[in-house]
Each structure stands twice: as C-alpha cells, then as structure tokens.
C-alpha cells in the first residue's frame, strides 16, 4: 500500500495499535491464525523486553475485530475493525475485505517493527505521535 492511498493512515494506525497497546484481543477467522502467530514471533524478536502480547479468538464472520480489554474489569471496547461494514465512529475502520486488509496490516506491522517501533520516536510514520481522528480519516474515504 502506498502512502498516498486513502486507507494508508488507518492501516498504519491499526498496526501501531497492535504493536503498542496492552490487553488486545483480535477476533478473526481460522485462516488468519498462522499469520498472526508469525506476527507474535516477530514482535518477540524485535521487542525482546515485551512480556505481554495480543491474544486471539477465532470467529466465523468475514472481518477482523480488535478489542481492548479493560485492565480493571471484564469490559472490552472495539478499537479497530477490518471489513466492509461500517463500525461506530470511535473505531478505526480499515474499509477493505478481510484478506486484503489483514494482509496490509501485517505488512505495516512488519515495516514498523523493522523501523524500531514502538521504541523509537518518529519511526511510526507521519503524524504517528498525534491523537487519532477517525472522523477526519473517514471523510477522506471513497
């Protein structure tokens, strides 16, 4: 995916979330498991001090849902979604079919890890240190 494509910012932001945020649980179809397990190995190789990693559950729908569990309760919130059904405005939306979107997220994760993210300043890409604005991002989508 090129930097000038409308979905590039949300793909990068979602990848940064996967690499940085604690207590993430990804829900995806069974065919995504091998790629995710490879990503976890890459994360442990590139971030040797990291002790907690995202987990996953398998579901039967054609999307990927990324939830963050609350550290103090059983509450969870949807933080990112890969699929063609529009989620709530507070959710990062990768508006792509699952195979294409999941593939782009994995590529972005790998690129960020190779650049030293999240242990570096500025290596997350343009605007990576600014708060995410989902409404502004969706306004740019086709």
Explain the overall architecture:
This protein is an alpha/beta fold and 142 residues long. It has one domain. Helix content is 36%, strand content 18%. It has 4 helices and 5 strands, in the order H-E-H-E-E-E-E-H-H. The chain has helices spanning 8-20, 33-46, 98-115, 134-139, and strands spanning 24-28, 55-58, 64-69, 76-82, 92-94. The chain has a 5-stranded mixed sheet. Strand 1 (24-28), helix 2 (33-46) and strand 2 form a beta-alpha-beta unit. Helix 1 (8-20) packs across helix 3 (98-115) and helix 2 packs parallel to helix 3 (98-115). The longest helix is centred in the last third of the chain and has 18 residues, at 98-115. It starts with 7 loop residues before the first helix and ends with a helix.
